[in-house]
Amino acid sequence: MIHIALPKGRLGEKAYQIFKSLGYGCPEIEQDNRKLIFVNRENDVCYFWAKPSDVSVYVERGAADIGIVGKDILLEHGSDVYELLDLGMGKCRMAVAGIRGKRPPADRTLRVATKFPNIARRYYASQSREIEIIKLNGSIEIAPLLGLSDVIVDIVETGTTLLENNLEPYETILPISARLIANKASYKFHYDEIRRISEKIQEKGI
Hints:
By secondary structure, the chain is an alpha/beta fold.
């Protein structure tokens, strides 16, 4: 039986439809209920919903054989998993943003508010720029507006939220999209099945 970790929300629902189209459907998951784990023994598949940032942990530690996760989470956590496919879903970008028309000076330590401290550190280390990380968990757009930080490093989709808060993207760090990942041990012991899933997704042009 293949155990699949899906991120809660629209991305996970889209991902499930892909697996269903490949013959890994599980009718119970489509019912209106509060269950988190769903098993279809006929198709030898078990799904479970997880917080998006936890999917890679479940896969890395073997609770799931494969999973769907954003590239941002893989980079931030340094997850020790196999990245099999770029699914091209959930496209966005990791970017540096700040107050519109007000670039911070380059001759002092840059204060960076972010939910992604590891990605931010690596990015600015590549530029040899000294920074101070301010780790936040909520809406970080207000940090520059209140003088808490000079810039933010965050995921940007349309940029509308930035514009509505008098912010603008300064530079793109990297593009982000959903990835199919596999547990390293599972990939060895369930190689044929996992490769079959991966190849079928590729054949569909997803």
